């Protein structure tokens, strides 16, 4: 009730003596400061909108153009070739405006039009320059004269110090590939997966599609590409994520881990205080567009950082609180007081209040989050029936409008000394699904803080891909440890304002029928979570440093490793998915690289059949180059899977059936892979502090009888693999597949560098990592 009283700015009572008016100066002060803060943000947004709107020019360049035109007129020459005079003729005649004043106004109007024309021309030139992708296909370390000229022109037209979204209007639209090219590449990709009879049948279906229905569907797709900035993204978001009715948990979400071998503080509330503060520092930089656009070798891009029956994505701007879950209770924790962001020590103080709160959960509240973990239909029905009005709707709105969701977990996770491999596996499963009711899987991301100070993040997939969340997470981890830090006792630094109001506990009225639905949802989610088999393999024998010495792309090396490991386990090849970014294009998200190729399968067979090492090395080089070629094509808009997906969507809109597209879209990805790269290496000191780096993250298996494999390179000497599959499939085992990966990695290095001596192994020269006690 105290929270409710503080929210009232004034109260009045009618008495026989008159009206008794009581003002709350604290509430009025909060309202005033909140308004000031809101207007400051509006001004910043308007300023950034102007700067971004005129990019690659600058607002000050307008003044330069005006002065140049006026100076030219002063010399009695007409740079407008009569246009200024025409403008002056059509100006509203005013008795108070002299002819000289009219001439100046006309010159300013002409200068403004000329300035806007120059901006349009520069932006058009920059868009054409950014459409050039040949640099990606050139040999590493060698740059053609054309590319050198292109780099110089991009730098000229890019201007100085771009904001986060400065390039948004200059990025080219995603091109629509030709149907014949997509069909040809598709048939090439499935050749190693089919016998002669199957391949002949699929070739016939593909040929029929290309010569008939394909061209008609392509026409509609090109029509969409003319008016849409990206012909894939909206349909991908809607049909792959938002219209999916299966549980988000395991099937769609992903996670990111904390530091592997070090915990900055063992105090749960302190860890939460620092990192929650860091999240809001990141949001402040985001609102001011101070985050640098993501840099590729010679071009600049930006991530889609602005987002946070079918589901919908809602973006709540400037939320000043987080929703917190602890032991079955939900709280609203405000992180702004009197218009200022609370210090890490104050947030720690508030978190500790929640941890010490003895209040029990409301009836039915403890496992309420299970509704978001089960299938979407039952959650949508329960939402309408039990959460569309009254106190339940108000509490649900608090959670959904929060900046993000926080779980104060009562377990300990991380690298345990007694059983490191098993502890990492448990840590991964906890981050992916937890207890199935202590996360809110609808939120854009949830942050988990464990009892021993470890943390992690769980991301929902529809609003953004993993690199976006990873970018935020890297910033938070680095800011937490290297900028904010802790005192000698492990608490956050700073002082506490003792007058801070208590975090507000949310109230619920859960009916018996709703409790039954919660129990059913929990049973569905628990069965799904229990079926997940997870293994985190931290490979420390060598890393990308040794791989690069073999003159091989580290990513291609790992993809060939996975092909070899899968073949050794299953005795066959499978359709393999590797995620590639399409950020070279406006609103680009991902494309698929089909890593199982004719070249990779030929190499694996040769190696397993005992072919001479020289033959195997030659085949490996060919497979690696083919993979790199496919990756570059995917990044430059020449992938096949998003094109086929959109053709399928168009066919459904038109009510047309395509046996070819139906089979293509039904093929299972039994090996789904993704590399999570470190994007902000400058935030970490891997040379002196190699232990201060995230272990990466992972996701659940895409196919019931397949594997999900996420991997990342830590510095030059460590490779982490996050392997998932399902216990219910008798032919998959995450730990056995991890053993196959370890063996394959070592075998490939031995193949590529057969003369390597044991004494020269990188493990002897790599920095020693201090393991936490």
From TrEMBL:
Enzyme class at the top of the EC tree: transferase
Residues of the Carnitine O-palmitoyltransferase N-terminal domain: 1-47
Keywords: Acyltransferase, Fatty acid metabolism, Lipid metabolism, Membrane, Mitochondrion, Transferase, Transmembrane, Transmembrane helix, Transport
Region (Disordered): 753-773
Catalysis performed (reactions): (R)-carnitine + hexadecanoyl-CoA = O-hexadecanoyl-(R)-carnitine + CoA
A GO molecular-function annotation: carnitine O-palmitoyltransferase activity
Residues at the active site: 461 (proton acceptor)
EC number: 2.3.1.21
Pathway of action: Lipid metabolism; fatty acid beta-oxidation
Chain ranges of the Choline/carnitine acyltransferase domain: 174-742
Transmembrane region(s): 50-71, 103-126, 291-309
Database matches in SUPFAM superfamilies: CoA-dependent acyltransferases
Biased composition (Basic and acidic residues): 758-773
Membrane topology label: Multi-pass membrane protein
Subcellular location(s) of the protein: Mitochondrion outer membrane
Signal peptide: none
Cellular component terms (Gene Ontology): mitochondrial outer membrane
GO biological process, one term: fatty acid beta-oxidation
InterPro entries: Carn_acyl_trans (IPR000542), CAT-like_dom_sf (IPR023213), Cho/carn_acyl_trans (IPR039551), Cho/carn_acyl_trans_2 (IPR042231), CPT_N (IPR032476)
Family of the protein in this entry: Belongs to the carnitine/choline acetyltransferase family.
UniProt-listed PANTHER family: CARNITINE O-ACYLTRANSFERASE (PTHR22589), CARNITINE O-PALMITOYLTRANSFERASE (PTHR22589:SF114)
Name used for this protein in its record: carnitine O-palmitoyltransferase
């Amino acid at each position: 009730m105290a929270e409710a009283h503080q929210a009232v700015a004034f109260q009045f009572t009618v008495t026989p003596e008159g009206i008794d008016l009581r003002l709350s100066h604290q509430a009025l002060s909060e309202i005033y400061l909140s308004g000031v803060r809101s207007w400051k943000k509006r001004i910043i947004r308007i300023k950034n909108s102007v700067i971004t709107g005129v990019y690659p020019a600058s607002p000050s360049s307008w003044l330069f153009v005006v002065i140049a035109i006026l100076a030219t007129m002063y010399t009695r020459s007409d740079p407008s070739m009569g246009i200024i005079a025409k403008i002056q003729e059509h100006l509203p005649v005013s008795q108070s405006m002299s002819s000289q004043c009219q001439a100046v106004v006309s010159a300013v109007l002409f200068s403004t039009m000329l300035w806007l024309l120059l901006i349009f021309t520069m932006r058009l030139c920059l868009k054409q320059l950014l459409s050039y992708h040949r640099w990606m296909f050139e040999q590493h370390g060698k740059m053609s004269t054309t590319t050198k000229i292109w780099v110089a022109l991009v730098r000229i037209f890019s201007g100085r110090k771009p904001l986060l979204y400065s390039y948004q209007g200059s990025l080219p639209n995603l091109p629509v590939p030709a149907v014949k090219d997509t069909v040809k590449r598709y048939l090439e990709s499935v050749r190693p997966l089919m016998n002669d009879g199957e391949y002949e049948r699929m070739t016939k279906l593909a040929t029929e599609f290309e010569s008939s229905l394909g061209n008609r569907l392509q026409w509609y797709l090109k029509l969409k590409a003319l008016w849409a900035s990206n012909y894939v993204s909206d349909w991908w978001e809607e049909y792959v994520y938002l219209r999916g009715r299966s549980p988000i948990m395991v099937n769609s979400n992903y996670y990111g881990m904390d530091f592997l071998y070090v915990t900055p503080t063992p105090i749960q509330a302190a860890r939460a205080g620092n990192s929650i503060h860091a999240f809001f520092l990141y949001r402040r930089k985001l609102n001011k567009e101070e985050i640098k656009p993501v840099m590729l070798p010679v071009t600049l891009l930006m991530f889609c950082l602005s987002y946070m029956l079918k589901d919908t994505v809602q973006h709540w701007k400037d939320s000043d609180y987080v929703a917190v879950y602890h032991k079955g209770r939900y709280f609203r924790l405000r992180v702004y007081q009197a218009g200022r962001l609370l210090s890490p020590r104050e947030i720690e103080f508030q978190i500790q209040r929640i941890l010490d709160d003895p209040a029990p959960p409301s009836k039915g509240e403890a496992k309420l989050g299970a509704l978001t973990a089960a299938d979407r239909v039952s959650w949508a029905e329960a939402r309408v029936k039990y959460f569309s009005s009254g106190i339940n709707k108000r509490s649900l709105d608090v959670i959904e409008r929060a900046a993000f969701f926080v779980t104060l977990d009562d377990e300990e996770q991380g690298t345990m000394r007694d059983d490191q491999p098993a502890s990492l596996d448990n840590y991964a499963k906890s981050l992916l699904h937890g207890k199935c009711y202590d996360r809110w899987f609808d939120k854009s991301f949830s942050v988990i803080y464990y009892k021993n100070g470890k943390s992690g993040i769980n991301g929902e997939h529809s609003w953004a891909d993993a690199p976006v969340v990873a970018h935020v997470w890297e910033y938070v981890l680095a800011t937490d440890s290297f900028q904010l830090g802790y005192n000698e006792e492990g608490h956050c630094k700073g002082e506490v304002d003792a007058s801070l109001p208590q975090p507000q506990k949310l109230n619920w009225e859960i009916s018996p029928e709703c409790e039954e639905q919660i129990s059913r949802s929990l049973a569905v989610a628990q069965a799904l979570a229990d079926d997940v088999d997870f293994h985190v393999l931290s490979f420390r024998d060598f890393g990308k440093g040794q791989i690069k010495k073999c003159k091989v792309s580290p990513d291609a090396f790992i993809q060939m490793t996975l092909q070899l490991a899968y073949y050794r386990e299953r005795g066959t090849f499978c359709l393999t998915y590797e995620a590639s970014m399409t950020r070279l294009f406006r609103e680009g998200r991902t494309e698929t690289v089909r890593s199982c190729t004719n070249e990779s399968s030929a190499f694996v067979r040769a190696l397993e059949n005992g072919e001479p090492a020289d033959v195997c090395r030659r085949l490996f080089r060919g497979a690696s180059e083919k993979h790199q070629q496919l990756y570059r094509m995917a990044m430059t808009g020449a992938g096949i899977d998003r094109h086929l997906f959109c053709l399928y969507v168009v066919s459904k809109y038109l009510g047309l059936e395509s046996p070819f597209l139906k089979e293509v879209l039904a093929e299972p990805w039994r090996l789904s892979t993704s590399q999570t790269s470190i994007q902000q290496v400058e935030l970490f000191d891997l040379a002196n502090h190699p232990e201060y780096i995230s272990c990466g993250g992972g996701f659940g298996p895409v196919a019931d009888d397949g594997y999900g494999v996420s991997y990342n390179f830590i510095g030059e000497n460590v490779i982490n693999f996050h392997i998932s599959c399902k216990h219910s499939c008798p032919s998959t085992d995450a730990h056995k597949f991890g053993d196959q990966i370890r063996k394959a990695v070592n075998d490939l290095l031995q193949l590529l560098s057969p003369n390597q001596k044991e004494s020269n192994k990188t493990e002897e020269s790599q920095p020693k990592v201090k393991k936490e006690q």
